[in-house]
TrEMBL record:
It comes from the Bacteria. SMART domains: Lactamase_B. This is Uncharacterized flavoprotein. Gene3D superfamilies: Ribonuclease Z/Hydroxyacylglutathione hydrolase-like (3.60.15.10). Residues 28-217 form the Metallo-beta-lactamase domain. InterPro entries: Metallo-B-lactamas (IPR001279), ODP_dom (IPR045761), RibonucZ/Hydroxyglut_hydro (IPR036866). It holds the Pfam family ODP. It comes from Bermanella marisrubri.
Length: 244
């Protein structure tokens, strides 16, 4: 599994992905970890099939007792089906996820990890001396959906917004925005159900300072590409299924 440090100025952001050993039919995912001194949070830690690889990758950077928090943007198995295994190695950790999914996510196994529900309007988490904001992104694509914004690092973990479906071995960053569009279009048209929710999110997210837009699938965006993505997403008609 590839790992890259995205930010390192007082605290660190890491991205993990491109696992060559994952089963062929399993969709590739990006996992993220934010480390600040004695505390760390893992964002969308992934499915059960990548747990061992993900754990080994994390342990290269932090001791297991410093992983104090987990975050799940929503309830899908590629996001959090590994929860039962994390529950065995992180007995004192806290999982942050929408209040809407507590009764669903617990099916993955949660005997020790504490569930901390996020209200619909979002809230902040102080990871020692840094503030992370759980940013609402409801119906993009889940009805209870959150992203994570770090105002100091100026990174937005955007979950499925900005996601792309690509073959194995794709780069971690978008290199050619125009060529990347075809990898995103169908995913967003089919999996994002609401143009109204999309526009509401865009109005709020454009007020943030963002240097890196980091989705859970596909490549990451930086610099001018972020505004290009917002413009493209705004013009895209979503909630479209293939007609029979």
């Amino acid at each position: 599994m590839d790992a890259l440090k995205l930010y390192d100025q007082g605290h660190q952001w890491y991205v993990f992905g491109r696992d060559p050993d994952k089963p062929e039919k399993i969709i590739d995912t990006n996992q993220f970890m934010i480390v600040n001194d004695e505390r760390s949070i893992v964002l969308d830690p992934g499915g059960i099939e990548i747990f061992s690889t993900m754990l080994a990758s994390i342990l290269k950077y932090v001791d297991i007792d410093k992983v104090t928090d987990l975050f799940a943007s929503h309830q899908d198995p590629d996001i959090i089906s590994s929860l039962g295994m994390w529950d065995q190695v992180l007995p004192n950790a806290t999982l942050h996820c929408s209040w809407l999914w507590e009764g669903f996510v617990c099916h993955f196994g949660m005997d020790h990890i504490r569930y901390e529900p996020i209200p619909d309007e979002g809230r902040s988490l102080h990871l020692d001396d840094i503030e992370l904001r759980f940013f609402p992104a409801h119906y993009l694509h889940s009805s209870g959906n959150f992203q994570v914004y770090d105002p100091k690092a100026k990174i937005l973990f955007s979950g499925d917004v900005g996601a792309a479906l690509e073959p194995p071995g794709a780069p971690l960053f978008v290199d050619d925005f125009e060529q990347h569009l075809d990898k995103m279009r169908y995913f967003h048209q089919r999996w994002m159900p609401s143009n109204e929710a999309k526009m509401h999110w865009l109005q709020r997210v454009r007020k943030l300072e963002i240097d890196i837009l980091a989705p859970q699938h596909g490549r990451l965006f930086k610099g001018r590409q972020i505004e290009q993505f917002f413009d493209w997403f705004e013009d895209l008609d979503v909630g479209i299924a293939t007609k029979p």
